[in-house]
Amino acid sequence: MLQIKSLKKSYSQGSTEVKIYEDLNFHVKEASKVAIMGKSGSGKSTLLSLISGIIKPTSGDILLDGVSYKDMKEEQINDFRASNIGFVFQNFHLVSYLNALENVMLPAKVCGIKNPKEKAVELLESVGLGHRLDHLPSELSGGEKQRVAIARALIHNPKIILADEPSGNLDEDTGIAVMDKLFELISKNNTTLILVTHSKDVAARCEQTYSLNHGNLDKC
Ligand SMILES: Nc1ncnc2c1ncn2[C@@H]1O[C@H](COP(=O)(O)OP(=O)(O)O)[C@@H](O)[C@H]1O
Ligand SMILES: [Mg+2]
């Protein structure tokens, strides 16, 4: 469902060119769970940003369900992302002035999904936060914030979830509980998952683990 073809990405830093990947090829099957590990600075977050279409590759192409990013204009790719991709970040990225329910409803509103409130309440209940609907992010613990973020990532039934070190800021027990919820919900919905993690235990929950080294994804 996800194909990465001859992907090249470099950043220019002043007069020098920082090469992240020169010829990256990768394939992810529908409904599979893939972990990506690798040293800090190896380009894991960059890869997720490329898959989400937030940044453009220097060359090469990405296809999601056969749809090539190459030919899409910025507006098209923004719409495509809003309907097909869900995100979970290490730092939660919740909107600080919206409560839990409003944060979860946000992507549904952008996509014009019917009954966003009902769906948001259902998802928040399924992550154990039915009693925290009107709490602001500042009134939630780290684990609760991440469970809100998971509910938000899933409300529009995305094809794929991109998770960047989702348990990286949580203590071990809270991280395990949050990952339990993420895996439970994506398995229920047959959502594809690409999960960046530094934890071998978290990676072991995925069907495949790859390590990003010197611009290549090596199977572990
Ligand atoms: N916008 C940018 N401009 C220049 N260099 C960048 C930019 N974003 C990331 N980099 C560099 O690209 C490399 C990979 O970054 P990143 O994808 O964030 O790595 P990781 O997530 O694996 O830690 C790093 O060396 C980083 O400094
Ligand atoms: Mg990163």
From TrEMBL:
Protein name, UniProt field: ABC transporter ATP-binding protein
Organism: Arcobacter roscoffensis
GO molecular function: ATP binding
Tagged with keyword Heme: no
InterPro entries assigned to the protein according to its UniProt record, in alphabetical order: AAA+_ATPase (IPR003593), ABC_transporter-like_ATP-bd (IPR003439), ABC_transporter-like_CS (IPR017871), MacB-like_ATP-bd (IPR017911), P-loop_NTPase (IPR027417)
Keywords, alphabetical: ATP-binding, Nucleotide-binding, Transport
Record-annotated ABC transporter domain positions: 2-219
Entry annotated with the keyword RNA-binding: no
Phylogenetic placement of the source organism: Bacteria, Pseudomonadati, Campylobacterota, Epsilonproteobacteria, Campylobacterales
